[in-house]
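Pilot study result, target chain (413 residues):
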Amino acid sequence: MASIRFLARLIAAWVAALCVLLVCWGTLDIGHDFPAIFTLIWFVGLLLALGRGVSHLYRVRTIAGRIDPETVANRQRRRVEVPYGAEETLDLVESVVRGLPEIQDVSAARGGLQVRGTIRHAVVEPASVPLRKRRPHDPFQRNTRIAASVVPGEGACTVLFVCEPDSGAWTDWFNPDGGVSLEYAETLVRALTQRINERRNRERADARQTSMEKELTAAQLSLLQAQVEPHFLYNTLASAQELVRTDPARADKMLGYLIDYLRRSLPRTDGSLSTVGQELERSTAWLEIMQLRMGGRLTVHVDVPEACLVYAMPSMMLQTLVENAIKHGLEPKPGGGGVWIRAACDPTGLSLTVADDGMGLRMDGTGSGIGLKNLRERLRLTYGNAASFAIGNNFPNGVAATITLPMTEATRA
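Predicted structure:
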């Protein structure tokens, strides 16, 4: 029924046009009948319009799978929800419009969040192309205007596509566009949906990759702890065993510090952040043990404002820097030296520095191994480009390592 109504409307439009011509001719009072040549032209135009109408219906059914008032219309509108911001959505829409075949005069008004273009069907073939290979051109085919508007919303945007012939709406009654507008409207919707799906797939792949990297880093950290802790425990217990015979009071103190350190070193398997205060307590307990083992060869200086203690940071990072300062800076140095732990914080972030006056950076690369590599990787996975790590020579000698973190407060565990 929709097909019959469409063709009947087309015939009615041409008949109405003929009636208007006859009325206008009669008002001219020329004195002779309506010319037969005009009647013949009208009849040929009607036949051509009917032929284009049948072709239009066939193409609409092929594209949409149905024929109804919405699909047979020459002017098509489509709405698509896009789960991105206005600028990102406009970039996607512009790339989709520019990807249409034979699109010309594409312009993007970023202030108005609009993209416009024109598809010119009257393509002029170069003279070098033989006549038999040139594409047939329909003289009744009008150019098609493409317009896309982005309407911002909360967390998403709505894209409105409009595809229509570049002539007045009254011509639609006499000259169907052969389903061209419908085809381009459906093409735009499919292309934009595909771009959105591709982008979502990339985001999911990136999220999976990041998750795998975090799991790998956690596994590396656990492996590092598994490798380091036994040596530290063996050395500490051996020192305590020796002190039991020579200095029981110092042995008791060392074991107390060891228990305190182990209590604070329970691994965090959930990936949650620790705090500066918690990490400082852990590192201080470790340094107390090292002071008992190294005696007067080690001095510790801590300058951390109380306001900085609640700032969040990944666990074991401060411990890594402190261990590097002792093992690679002070233990190899005759006479030992000092370790400084300093922090500064403001509403924008935290800066945490561990410095020593030991051997300094050496050409053999000592101190640039798995511990610092793991630290850099954890910073990248946790904060992206918002955090940084720098290590260099301390003045007048030794090494200074600084971690800079963005502002993130955590509740004390």
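One observation from the pilot: Confidence is low (pLDDT under 50) at residues 409-413. A full batch analysis is planned for the follow-on phase.
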